[in-house]
User: Fold this.
Amino acid sequence: MIIGQLVRPFSYLSIRHPYKWVVDWLYPIILALISFSSAYYFSDILNIIKTGGAIQALLSFIQSLPGFYIAALAAIATFGRSDIDEALPEPTPKVIVRDGGIENWVGLTRRRFLAMLFAFLTAQSIVLIIFSVFLTSYGIDISKYTLNQINFGFYLICSSILIYAIMFFQLILATFWGLYYLGHKLHE
Assistant:
């Protein structure tokens, strides 16, 4: 039960909408593959995790984000206009809500959608901070691990860098989507 509550901010990814998967998964995966391929073919991929590498540079940026996301979450929670509590227009994003053991699909209001989005962004940025510290601290050592003369550690680190890139681009694209809603759609 407590684990379910701790991972609840990631329930944003379970929102169903015909186009949301494009922002959540398709674009981040494409951008991550382009970035990873460029780093792999035009540089030493391990430079990304070394001191002074890309992940350390991104860490400086990412570690400032949770505070801003929490501030946005607080603003959304206390926003006074009543129309923010009306359902989003069709096709309305939906989420499963469990009530008394029964699961129902519920259309989201702007407030609930934005609250879920910024809770997700806060959690994702914290996970990326921890992931960044882990990769920069232990990545080079892990990359040297071999198993039966196969450089297993190198493949593990490459996979980790690709997952990191997907998560990073998910964070960036969802942030811009949140800014679009806060700066434009919320005031229509």
About this structure: The chain has one domain: 17-187.
